[in-house]
Design brief:
Number of helices: 2
Strand content: under 5%
Structural class: mainly alpha
Largest sheet: none
Radius of gyration: 20 Å
Helix content: 40-55%
């Protein structure tokens, strides 16, 4: 019988992805509303909502192409 390993394995390191936040498209009121919501979320420290706004803004901008 072999002895069990008594040391931990090294942690897995995942790369960080730092993507630029999406900008609003021109004078679109929907884009402006998402940017405002993102600013409010950031001010209250809600990083999940900031991320949600970024996703929605990226998806919405696809319709502007």
């Amino acid at each position: 019988m072999t002895e069990p390993t008594r040391h931990s394995t090294p942690p897995v390191e995942l790369p960080l992805r730092w993507e630029r936040e999406p900008d609003p498209a021109g004078a679109c009121p929907d884009c402006a509303a998402l940017v405002a919501a993102r600013s409010r979320a950031r001010a209250r420290g809600d990083r999940s909502a900031v991320s949600d706004c970024n996703v929605l803004l990226r998806r919405h901008r696809q319709g502007h192409r």
